[in-house]
Amino acid sequence: MDEINRIFDTEVEKLSRGTIDMGIIETVKQQERNKGKREEAVAIAREMKKDGLPNSQIAKFTKLSLKEIEKLK
Record's superkingdom (predicted)? Predict the structure, then answer.
């Protein structure tokens, strides 16, 4: 992950010629981290669902909504 962040920073620096505000970069990185966490939660929820755990329990442990869990296949 550190390598990906370093590559990302290098590419942003090249594209922006050093004029981009670091706050924007940190915001984008945070959004990507959150996206990764959500994808992981969804994967865990799918496994829990396969194992027959109740949706309410899956929601409790993954912090996904019941609606999101019900849509999972």
Answer: Bacteria
